[in-house]
From TrEMBL:
One of its GO terms (biological process) is cellulose biosynthetic process. Residues 21-31 have a biased composition (Polar residues). InterPro entries: KOBITO1-like. Residues 1-31 are annotated as: Disordered. This is Glycosyltransferase family 92 protein. Residues 10-20 have a biased composition (Low complexity).
Length: 459
């Protein structure tokens, strides 16, 4: 097993037993097993055609259901874009989720907690290294919530760098499963227009690190279930917008939000994996001593975006109570409104506010918070001055939201983006087609893999 994991940066996975067959034998749903088979077929295609090796590293927890719903579509999308491998630190305790991730040929995943599943490779030693890392960063590692997560993320980043260098990867990026990279449309419409690998391959040799700014998802109704299908409107980053748009941003700052973008606006960087002494500079950035061809050089990308699907569903708010701050003391602090205590857990105010309302367990209050804070719809409330002579801010309700969105899109404050939706739909069509053919032919798992390979050759 250790050998097979180490070789996940090799040039072929053709000798690996069919993931579709293994999934079916283990009792996985047919839809999930087919999506795993599609991901593995996309990986095999990428091995043949992509010019550089791109590694994504991330830390995640969650159940098998959350991996099926959110992580698997995210991996499918980025594998479609030519991302080579995913280096995952699994901070959850669901053995089924871990097995599902390990059925993907381009995923190398290690469990932070023992006894989730049988240890692989150097997992026990990895946990010892993490304990040492957390102790050295005690000012963060001994704090719960966001602070502890950042310690785990930066640890995993530095572990991923070593792994990527051994595998001769070219680029590395730390990214979360609610963030989707979107390079500017390039090429001649031949199907390679959205290849992130080819986008990076075109970067000048002196570029060591490329910062890609983020756009934040803007839900337009309160009943989103499939974020990739139903959310296509995004708030653009202030770094990339015209002054006229920047001045207008308060018109779509919903509810009591203190900022236009509720989580972060500084983007994330992708760095050359072979840079000398490459290391994490926090979850968003990298630092090194130089690229092979020049001193360390940070560059800003104006032709790529990270689409951040933050808080696009009511469930994203509701889940905060169970995933953010451990222990009853923080739940009680939330119910008492003790923000000082909650600051021990949270870096960002909106996360804290979401935790406070989620801790009540009141589904009506949770939906009300989500609608008021996140949903750009008719009647949504924004802070405003009713006239130029008003000394203080009051509340206004949005009327004719379609015109407001059109105006905001025209000046670059908002952007409509369908690329992720389109790719997600294409994957769903492929899965349905292969499922239909396999039923007609009585195909085995191995033949399912062959069907996906053939379909992708025609794509």
């Amino acid at each position: 097993r250790a050998g097979s994991e180490t070789n996940k940066l090799s040039t072929s996975a053709s000798t690996t037993p069919s993931a579709a067959q293994r999934s079916m034998e283990s009792g996985d749903s047919n839809d999930t097993s087919l999506r795993v088979a599609l991901a593995n077929a996309l990986y095999r295609r990428g091995v043949r055609r992509e010019p550089v090796r791109v590694v994504f590293c991330l830390t995640l927890g969650g159940s098998r259901a959350s991996v099926e719903r959110d992580v698997l579509p995210w991996i499918l999308y980025h594998t479609e874009l030519g991302v080579w491998n995913f280096f995952i630190l699994y901070d959850g305790k669901d053995a089924d989720a871990l097995r599902l991730l390990r059925s993907l040929h381009n995923v190398f995943v290690r469990a932070l907690h023992k006894d989730v599943a049988e240890d692989i490779a150097d997992e026990p030693k990895m946990r010892e290294r993490y304990a040492s890392w957390a102790e050295r960063h005690w000012q963060w590692g001994h704090r719960p919530g966001n602070y502890a997560l950042m310690v785990k993320q930066t640890f995993n980043q530095n572990e991923a760098v070593l792994w990527a260098k051994v595998g001769h990867a070219d680029w590395i990026m730390h990214i979360d499963p609610d963030e989707f990279v979107l390079p500017l449309y390039q090429g001649d419409g031949s199907g390679d227009d959205l290849s992130f690998a080819r986008y990076l391959h075109k970067q000048p040799s002196h570029v060591s690190s490329l910062r890609i700014f983020n756009a934040e998802a803007q839900p337009e109704h309160a009943y989103v279930k499939n974020r990739l299908e139903e959310v296509t409107l995004f708030k653009m980053n202030k770094a990339l917008m015209h002054f006229d748009a920047y001045a207008m941003r308060t018109k779509v700052r919903l509810g009591g939000n203190r900022a236009y973008m509720i989580l972060y606006a500084n983007g994330k960087s992708v760095a050359r994996a072979n840079a000398t002494n490459l290391r994490s500079l926090g979850p968003h950035f990298w630092k090194g001593d130089g690229s092979p061809n020049a001193p360390w050089t940070d560059t800003l990308a104006d032709d790529a975006t990270i689409l951040h699907y933050a808080y696009t569903r009511v469930e994203d708010v509701a889940s905060k109570a169970g995933t953010s701050c451990p222990g009853d003391e923080y739940r009680e602090a939330a119910l008492r409104g003790n923000r000082t205590k909650l600051k021990e857990c949270f870096v960002i105010d909106f996360d804290l506010d979401a935790f406070r309302v989620a801790s009540t367990g009141d589904s009506v209050a949770i939906r009300k918070f989500f609608e008021e804070s996140m949903v750009l719809q008719e009647g949504a409330r924004v802070r405003c001055r009713r006239s130029e002579t008003d000394a203080t801010m009051g509340w206004c309700e949005i009327r004719d939201v379609r015109s407001l969105i059109a105006d905001a899109m025209r000046i670059g404050l908002l952007r409509r983006e369908h690329a992720v939706q389109a790719i997600s739909r294409s994957h769903a069509r492929l899965v349905r087609a292969v499922e239909h053919l396999s039923k007609l032919q009585g195909a085995s798992g191995t033949n399912v893999d062959a069907l996906f390979d053939a379909a992708l050759l025609l794509d």
